[in-house]
């Protein structure tokens, strides 16, 4: 399950540089008397009888895993890709909430998702043109999904909208998303209490994404401090779940 850590995301005001796998292996732990079979390192997925003969004169081939394209690209590229991935995760949360609401609130949330997707696509276009963002496979994939979701949200908004509908809406998108984030925290706490870690992780992660986005958008310092406090509390619970072995996450920094 993928867990988003959003400490370093600041610029898009809505929260990854992707961590590359570190190539570690048995070579660093070779003993000086490696000729002795008893001191040879364990080879994963091998039986003792299948271990390579390091005393043989024949060459031993080590096959390195293929690295993602982003490993070799500049930091600015990875930061922009991280922002695009976060917007995608955020809009998925927003549209999921929209599906549970009535017509007016659903339209309010879909308009918010449309704004987020439009901002992300504009960012991708600008960064591709100036060369900061490279057209890697990961970039092409996330931009393709963003574009598809934008078209779907636009079609849904046109279908739901009617003259004066948004003007008569009593709730803002921020208020709806804040209430949903708090509800997710409460439900996750109950799931955790009754031994349902998989469900509580999903709820905590949704709350984490929404709270961070709201904290980045608000211009009121007291609101920002409160939202950040809640978000950090959620991240603490996610960290504890991971330490307990319930979650295996790929940390990314946004």
From TrEMBL:
Taxonomic superkingdom: Eukaryota
Domain ATG1-like MIT: 169-243
Protein name: ATG1-like MIT domain-containing protein
InterPro entries with a match to the protein in the record: ATG1-like_MIT2
Organism: Lygus hesperus
Taxon lineage: Eukaryota, Metazoa, Ecdysozoa, Arthropoda, Hexapoda
